[in-house]
């Protein structure tokens, strides 16, 4: 243990209480009698910052002295959630803080609830970035996260008459205790304008004359590794109007124009685009992408130059830039521009450095999610970058021609530029060509990247595409969110299990032990009771903790098939109405999901679930055997309450569509049984826990493909399956929406006529799988055994494992534990 860790371990509650009170008075200007829970939570954060910034200095000093190779994780999204509990745990101060607050007559849990979620992301991709930076700090890797300091994160969701309504997220309304502004590290980002070609004695060169400038202001959020030894930084850029902005010349009219320009500049970091899995193609989004990419690269180059001057050949030895999907892919063109135009390197040298420096993670195969930018928009916003992309492509197509001589079709297929009426740039192609490594996020996903998305790239570069299966941090997703289970584990396993999750495997022999089963299920029961209160508070629906808690929590998307779940609920409800004595295990179906604001079908599915819920929950004739709740405003902090209480984890995407999934890992880690398709990481979860400890069902990828080729006809299933037909007709009639018959018809219509994600094709298998869950749950001991085996077999889904694979396979990065100073 280091000195700091020893000091922390020796900290007494009374001493800690005095520190918090001192901050309450001198940092917050309040005092004990007056302070609200919010003020106390701020004082607690200020107290933690003493330790955090000491750790940050230590880490930075060590990293600078060791001239360490560093990874820069570029992501448009970081879905951090709350930081107070995780900082307390990672510093080893949680218990002492709890006792200290109790001395003060306060409940720590109440203070933790004061903190708004930092929701600077949409879903899996953004949360993955958050888990990954936790692991990078924990593993003492020299790493910086780069993103955007959105003023408004993902919208807050409300339901009005069952419909989703979006409200602005105001996470910084009252400031954030974690962020520090670093004006000394601000950057200028240029946009628009034109490119001039200058001919001189050395030939010709290009000069970009931009017509707009933005200032990028960094806000740093410390990322505390587990154990508190290393503290890394998440650097988020805020956009402001440029300094040189001409305030002197304005007159009465100019004043207003000057402000308009200022507002425009500040719009860039104003709000997170709430689309997942669709490419919005908006100019402002492109500017966001370039703004943060350019600011981050300038920051990286500044740091490099201050240590190594203009010896750019060292750049790729000391830096790696990881692209979290294609969203920051314009950074490839930006680094080329800087090296060629500004540092005057030869193209070939610059390209080698660039290609060596970048790596790209692909998160999706859905065609509608693959980003393209129109050439004409790029020519307007980033004219020089567009030229550079053309040149990258010209040289790439030469390589293609060498491999496949005179093959026009191949040229068109592989080209970074999509030809056609509206020419566009395919950002995934640019990312593959411009990177040293490309990775998928689960075995099956990587396989499909190789066979379906980029088969020719594999022929060109057989080693480039790798798999790194996703993971989640066991700190947040087990220790912190499930303190009761953590305590039970602590009674049997070394205290450092949150760092070495494989230690939980020591509990495998106890899975059959009746006493341990009883303790494990008692924890689950307590967690369910706690969730009962949350459900009551959020929806006013009363549910029983004796029922199966069946949970589907994730973004709302047709490919994730929340409507498959709904269809089964309708079928089950009909059976119950026909036969109220039907013998089923009581079940609570729990949903949490946000829909992209412009995604009609997704919003219709939310409305349908809410309307069906209202009818079912008020139908006394079914004796409370099923209940259905859709919790509003699903987010990280709500997930932390749901996951520990789940019995069943629904992961029912159409095979081949869910790249990985990470909620599946979190739920299994907390002892939920997966009800899932052969998709994404479900397949690897099955390998880890054993086929008998989860329920997989439905078509596999090749069966989906075969059905597509043979011509899928959902109408036939609708016509021939009496229960499906009845449920879909029921949904489109007036039963659930008497005031507006047909309100929910769009879903039935879609499923009967198109069913793009083959809900009806998988229905029969799904309902059988649901029945397997029902009979499994009745065998109390077998279920408990399976739940335990799930929880203790998740080591390979620890994000520390994922990050070590990135460090070894992609980044060539070594841990540098911070030395005491
Ligand atoms: C956000 C913005 C755009 Cl423009 C496109 C996609 C997204 C987004 O949020 N994607 C996303 O969350 N993808 C998910 O990434 C996870 C982490 O790899 C996977 O587990 C999950 O399967 C995938 O859908």
TrEMBL record:
UniProt name for this protein: Alpha-1,4 glucan phosphorylase
Matching SUPFAM superfamilies: UDP-Glycosyltransferase/glycogen phosphorylase
Listed Pfam families: Phosphorylase
CDD domains: GT35_Glycogen_Phosphorylase
GO molecular function per UniProt: glycogen phosphorylase activity; pyridoxal phosphate binding
Keywords attached to this entry: Carbohydrate metabolism, Glycogen metabolism, Glycosyltransferase, Pyridoxal phosphate, Transferase
Similarity annotation: Belongs to the glycogen phosphorylase family.
InterPro entries: Glycg_phsphrylas (IPR011833), Glyco_trans_35 (IPR000811), Pyridoxal_P_attach_site (IPR035090)
Enzyme Commission (EC) number: 2.4.1.1
Taxonomic superkingdom: Bacteria
């Amino acid at each position: 243990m280091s000195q700091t860790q020893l000091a922390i371990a020796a900290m007494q509650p009374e001493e800690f209480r005095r520190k918090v009170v001192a901050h309450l008075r001198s940092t917050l200007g309040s005092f004990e009698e007056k302070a609200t829970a919010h003020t106390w939570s701020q004082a607690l954060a200020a107290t933690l910052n003493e330790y955090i910034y000491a750790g940050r200095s230590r880490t930075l000093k060590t990293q600078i002295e060791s001239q360490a190779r560093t990874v820069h994780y570029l992501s448009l999204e970081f879905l951090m959630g709350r930081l107070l509990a995780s900082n307390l745990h990672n510093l080893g101060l949680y218990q002492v803080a709890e006792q200290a607050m109790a001395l003060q007559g306060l409940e720590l849990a109440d203070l933790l609830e004061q903190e708004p979620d930092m929701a600077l992301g949409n879903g899996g991709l953004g949360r993955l970035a958050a888990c990954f930076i936790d692991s990078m700090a924990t593993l003492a890797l020299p790493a910086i996260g780069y993103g955007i300091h959105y003023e408004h994160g993902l919208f807050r969701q409300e339901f009005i008459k069952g419909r989703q309504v979006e409200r602005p997220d105001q996470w910084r309304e009252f400031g954030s205790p974690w962020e520090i502004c670093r004006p000394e590290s601000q950057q200028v980002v240029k946009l628009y304008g034109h490119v001039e070609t200058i001919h001189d004695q050395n030939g010709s060169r290009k000069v970009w004359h931009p017509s707009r400038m933005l200032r990028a202001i960094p806000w740093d959020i410390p990322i505390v590794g587990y154990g508190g030894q290393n503290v890394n930084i998440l650097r988020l850029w805020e956009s402001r109007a440029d300094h040189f902005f001409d305030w002197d010349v304005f007159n009465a009219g100019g004043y207003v124009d000057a402000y308009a320009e200022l507002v425009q500049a500040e719009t860039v970091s104003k709000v997170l685009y709430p689309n997942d899995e669709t490419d919005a193609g908006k100019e402002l989004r492109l500017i966001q992408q370039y703004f943060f990419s350019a600011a981050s690269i300038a920051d990286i180059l500044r740091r490099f130059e201050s240590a190594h001057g203009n010896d750019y050949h060292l750049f790729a030895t000391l830096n790696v830039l990881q692209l979290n999907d294609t969203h920051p892919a314009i950074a490839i063109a930006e680094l080329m521009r800087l090296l060629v135009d500004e540092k005057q390197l030869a193209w070939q040298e610059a390209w080698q450095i660039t290609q060596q420096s970048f790596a790209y993670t692909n998160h999706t195969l859905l065609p509608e999610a693959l980003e393209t930018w129109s050439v004409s928009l790029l020519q307007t916003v980033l004219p020089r970058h567009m030229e550079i992309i053309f040149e990258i492509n010209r040289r790439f197509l030469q390589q293609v021609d060498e491999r496949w001589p005179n093959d026009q079709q191949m040229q068109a297929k592989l080209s970074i530029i999509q030809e056609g009426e509206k020419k566009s740039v395919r950002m995934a192609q640019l990312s593959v060509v411009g990177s040293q490594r490309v990775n998928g996020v689960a075995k099956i996903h990587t396989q499909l990247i190789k066979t379906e998305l980029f088969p020719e790239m594999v022929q060109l570069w057989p080693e480039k595409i790798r798999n790194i299966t996703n993971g989640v941090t066991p700190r947040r997703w087990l220790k912190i969110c499930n303190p009761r289970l953590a305590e039970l584990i602590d009674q049997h396993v070394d205290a450092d299990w949150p760092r070495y999750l494989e230690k939980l495997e020591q509990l495998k022999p106890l899975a059959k032990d009746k006493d341990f089963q009883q303790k494990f299920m008692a924890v689950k029961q307590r967690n369910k009771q706690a969730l009962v209160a949350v459900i009551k508070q959020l929806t006013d629906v009363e549910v029983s903790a004796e029922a199966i808690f069946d949970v589907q929590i994730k973004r709302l998307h047709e490919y994730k098939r929340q409507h498959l779940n709904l269809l089964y609920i309708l079928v089950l409800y009909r059976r119950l109405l026909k036969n109220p004595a039907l013998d089923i295990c009581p079940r609570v179906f729990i949903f949490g999901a946000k829909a992209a604001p412009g995604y009609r079908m997704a919003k219709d599915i939310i409305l349908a679930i809410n309307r069906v819920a209202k009818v079912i929950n008020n139908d006394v004739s079914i004796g409370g055997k099923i209940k259905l709740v859709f919790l509003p405003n699903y987010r990280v902090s709500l997930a932390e309450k749901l996951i520990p209480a789940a019995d069943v984890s629904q992961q029912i995407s159409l095979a081949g569509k869910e790249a990985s999934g990470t909620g599946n890992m979190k739920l299994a880690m907390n002892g939920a049984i997966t009800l899932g398709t052969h998709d994404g990481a479900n397949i690897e979860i099955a390998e880890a826990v054993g086929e008998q400890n989860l329920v997989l069902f439905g078509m596999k990828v090749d069966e989906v493909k075969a059905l597509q080729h043979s011509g899928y006809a959902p109408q036939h299933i609708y016509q021939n399956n009496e229960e499906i037909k009845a449920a879909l007709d029921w949904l489109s009639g007036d039963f659930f929406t008497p005031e507006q018959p047909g309100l929910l018809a769009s879903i039935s219509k879609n499923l009967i006529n198109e069913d793009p994600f083959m809900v009806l094709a998988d229905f029969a298998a799904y309902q059988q799988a649901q029945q397997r869950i029902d009979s499994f749950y009745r065998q109390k001991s077998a279920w408990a055994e399976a739940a335990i085996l799930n929880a203790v077999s998740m080591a390979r889904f620890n994000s520390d494992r994922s990050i070590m694979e990135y460090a070894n396979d992609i980044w060539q990065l070594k841990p540098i534990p911070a030395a005491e100073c």
